[in-house]
Amino acid sequence: MNTGKPLPYLAGYPATLVEQVRQLIVQDKVADLLLGRYPDAHDIRTDKALYDYVQQLKNEHLRNAGQLSKVMFDSKLQVLRNALGTHTTHSRVQGLNLKAKKEIRIASLFKDAPPEFLRMIVVHELAHMKQREHDKAFYQLCMHMEPDYGQLEFDLRIYLSYRDTGGAALWQPAAVQDTTSHPFLT
Ligand SMILES: [Zn+2]
Question: 125 C-alpha to center of ligand 1: Å?
Answer without folding.
Answer: 6
